[in-house]
Amino acid sequence: MENTQKKGGFAGGIGFVLAAAGSAVGLGNLWGFPYKTANNGGAAFVFLYIACVLFIGLTIMICEIFLGRRSQANPVTAFKKINKKIGWFGLLAILVPFIITWYYSVLGGYTVKFAVNSFWGNDGNLANFAGNGWEVILFSAIFLGFALFVVMMGVKSGIEKASKILMPALFILLVLVVIFVLFLGDGVGDGLKFYLVPDFSKITWSSVLAAMGQAFYSLSLGMGAMIVYGSYTGKEINIVKSTGMICIFDTFVALLAGMAIFPAVFHFAAVEGIAATDLQLNGLMLMFNTLPKVFESIGYFGNIIEFFFFAMVIIAAVTSVISIMEVSTQFIIQKFRIKRKKATLFVAIVTFAISIPIALSLGHLLNGTGKMEIFGLDFLSFLDTVTNTVIMPVCALFSCLAVGWFITPKKAIEELKLDGNKFGIFEKPLMFMMKFVVPVLIIAIEVFGIKDLIFPGNVFSSDGLGVAIVSLAIIAVAMGVYFLLLKNTETGTNADEIG
Ligand code: PHE
Fold it and tell me: At 306, which CATH number?
């Protein structure tokens, strides 16, 4: 804990906040939040979401950044330093982001292709592109290449520098798109109404769970990223204030994303004389099918706005993937004492190789050929469910337990205060949150998530059970590998980075 030697860490507070915000702002903000908001009671859901960020997200993020900071090391060492028996919590927090990198890079490839193609038109291109395996693989490689380059350059000269340029750029692009869209005229008001008019009758238990899950994912919690970025900070960075800024930025971007999307879609619907709600408004289809149609219906200026939009999506995705690529890279550097460039290259090559079948399987899904499935899902959805629904809450729970039960909230708050953090009247509530409230809420998310997986719509699904079993097996593997290979061997710290 006393190892405050900073080697290659973030140079300053702003750099750290922007890098962490870069991790947080991702596809979850751009295609998850707007849709969930519109579907779960508009502004009523926004209030709920903000409450989840304030009460759960903030607490876990403080715990994760704190765990990294106090150990100045990768997640395995970070947990090991608290208690040797829980070092495997860290291994899981490295494994999950590694798995996410595999499929996120395929989605990243789509965003690059769509940005490049904005000028010629993307309307109706999704099925063509998706079915053209080699092209998808090529664009995924280009996307991965960006991330590889940044991570190779290191934390200060790569990740921090890139975030300082890319995050303001993302924000400017988003604001430009929102302004453009709000002036489109017909349908804009209806879009805003659809998105934001509060409807408290839509708030049910499942919307509460949706808000909690979304807050988690959107803040990049339970995926090692915040532990790792935290490990590159020293006493000069105020954890509580930084956490506040990251959460505000992330929420603001999510809110603005909806203000770019819904008014545009409703404007298109009004012009075409169709019902906007008949269009696909969620996830992949919203981004790669509906939105290109919407922008391209506006004429050539629309193509330029479309390019801005996809450029923004690339930035959001690349800064997220950088953060999770850094997680596995850091561990490899520290455990095997190899140079950063080699470690990054290794991670990127393995990721690229595994992303190939994922890209092909997604192509089959989008073309409706139904090949290359596992438990009834394409590979991407399968891995997404394994990580998001089952393992990520477990990882977040572990971070919370490590601080709330192993370190104890009292000692944690003392350590944080020594670092210059101030809590005022929130000190006691925060301690209570760390120890009891947040763990209970995470367990609720996990239990309901697994229940929905195995009994979707209250009907038993053997596929869902299969996904749950694979997820638990991954957790067991992390545990086994740790106790067999890592518990009693050196797992390194940031100070070990060479070259
Ligand atoms: N917070 C990210 C998002 O909203 C989640 C994420 C982070 C996904 C890092 C992948 C990698 O999309």
Answer: 1.10.4160.10
| Contact by Cβ (8 Å): 62, 423 | no
Residue 435 CA, ligand 1 centroid: distance in Å = 26
Q: How far is the CA of 224 from the centre of ligand 1 (A)?
A: 11
Please state, in angstroms and rounded to a whole number, the distance separating the CA atoms of residues 346 and 325: 11
388 Cα–ligand 1 center, Å: 10
By the 8 A CB rule, do 61 and 221 touch?
yes
Give, for all 499 residues of the chain, the pLDDT tens digit: 444 445 679 998 999 999 999 999 999 999 889 988 888 888 899 999 999 999 899 999 999 999 999 999 999 999 999 999 999 999 999 999 999 999 999 999 999 999 999 999 898 889 889 988 999 999 999 999 999 999 999 999 999 999 999 999 999 999 999 999 999 999 999 999 999 999 899 888 888 888 998 999 999 999 999 999 999 999 889 999 999 999 999 999 999 999 999 999 999 999 999 999 899 888 888 999 999 999 999 988 999 999 999 999 999 999 999 999 999 999 999 999 999 999 999 999 999 999 999 999 999 998 888 789 999 999 999 999 999 999 999 999 999 999 999 999 999 999 999 988 999 999 999 999 999 999 999 999 999 999 999 999 999 999 999 999 999 999 999 999 999 999 999 999 999 998 6
The rounded Å distance from CA 297 to ligand 1 centre is 30
Tell me the C-alpha to C-alpha distance, in Å, between residue 122 and each of 168, 180, 289, 303.
Answer: 26, 20, 8, 9
Domain count, the chain: 1
pTM of the model: 0.95
Domain assignment of residue 400, yes or no: no
104 lines ligand 1 (CB under 6 A): yes
28 lines ligand 1 (CB under 6 A): yes
- Please report whether residue 375 resides in a domain: no
The residue range of the domain holding 190 is: 13-360
Q: What is the identity of the amino acid at 497? A: E
Q: CA dist 242 to 8, 138, 233, 312, 315, Å?
A: 20, 37, 11, 23, 21
Judge if the beta carbon of residue 108 lies within 6 A of ligand 1. Answer: no
Measure Cα distances from 298 to 181, 264, 266, 368 in Å: 10, 10, 13, 30
Say if 491 falls within a structural domain: no
In three-state secondary structure terms, 68 is helix
Handedness of CA 408, 329, 162, 147 (dihedral sign): negative
| Within-domain flag for 296 | yes
Picking from 335, 158, 142, 148, the residue whose alpha carbon sits closest to that of residue 229 is: 158
